[in-house]
Amino acid sequence: MLHRRKTYTIRPERLQEFTEFFHTYLYPLQISHGARLVGRWVNEAEDEVIAIWEYRDREHYEQVDRDVRGSTLRREAMKKRARLGKNLYIKSTEDFLTATGVYAPPRAIVSVTAYITNEAGEVLLVRNLHRGDTYEMPGGQVENHESILDAVKREVKEETGADVTIDGITGIYQNISSHVLCVAFRGTYTGGELRPQEGETAEVGFFPLTRDNIDSYIKREHFQLRTLDAMDPHYFPHALYKVRPYELISRYDGNAPSALSGQN
């Protein structure tokens, strides 16, 4: 792993403004292109903010950096900073760190994606700003303390504006290059006005997707794989529970697609 330490020198009275700018622009710019934020800190004088980002290696960092520089959100960030004034932060510096050992349990990022159909049997697809070469099923990262069912409904809604019911899990896919475990679902469109998500999706729509024409829409092989698996699904069992004490919240046995539809 490669870590990048980014240090911002700021005026203490502008800490809140800088924090809002960071969360609106700097943070999504990095994570949407594959970086991971290890942490963000401010010193006692509140005149220095440090963010540490993680990349797989130098090549990964360079790819993320190229993608960020070419993104629409970065151009918006530059315009916003100009409106706020150049002294939003006085200067920034960066250096790179290499870990000397592993001091934490193995971790994986959990993401979700969904094959959503409408009454005509068309499939809901998006074109993301940072992956403009292909269409793909909508989805994203599961947040802390969020169930995968809640996550997939939220991500579909955020990226497309669609409200959906979920029938079941159609596949689980592990990207060992980026430590991402993706859970794919199948579901049905129930309402909501389709619209792109600002700063994330460039295009949203239902398309007459089939096994024969999938190459015309979905260009990346790993996206094709999970989409093809969802076309004629074999649903997987799923359980949501708590421990200490044990409480089974919901269970789906893989046989009745409607079993998940009522879950929040």
Could you characterize the architecture of this molecule?
There is one protein chain. The protein is α+β, with helices and mostly antiparallel strands and 264 residues long. It has six helices and twelve strands. Strands 2-3-1-4 form a four-stranded antiparallel sheet. A four-stranded mixed sheet has the order 7-5-9-8. A hairpin with a 4-residue loop joins strand 11 and strand 12. The longest helix has 17 residues. The protein starts with a strand and ends in a 12-residue tail after the last strand. The mean pLDDT is 90.
Query: What is the helix content?
Result: 25-40%
Sheet with most strands: 4 strands, antiparallel
**Strand order across the largest sheet:** 2-3-1-4
- Number of H/I helices: 6
- CA radius of gyration is 21 Å
Assign an overall shape: globular
Contiguous runs where pLDDT drops below 50 for at least 5 residues: none
Give the averaged pLDDT, no decimals: 90
Distance, first to last CA: 37 Å
What is the total tally of β strands? 12
Structure summarized in a few sentences:
With 264 residues, the chain is of the alpha+beta class. It is built from six helices and twelve strands.
Task: Fill in the keyword field for this structure.
264 residues; globular
What's the arrangement of secondary structure elements?
Layout (H helix, E strand, L loop, with lengths): L1 E8 L5 H17 L4 E7 L5 E8 L2 H12 L2 H13 L6 E8 L10 E9 L5 E6 L10 E3 L6 H13 L2 E13 L4 E12 L9 E7 L6 H4 L3 H11 L6 E5 L4 E6 L12
Parallel strand pairs: 5-9
Antiparallel strand pairs: 1-3, 1-4, 2-3, 5-7, 6-10, 8-9, 11-12
Helix pairs in contact: 1-3
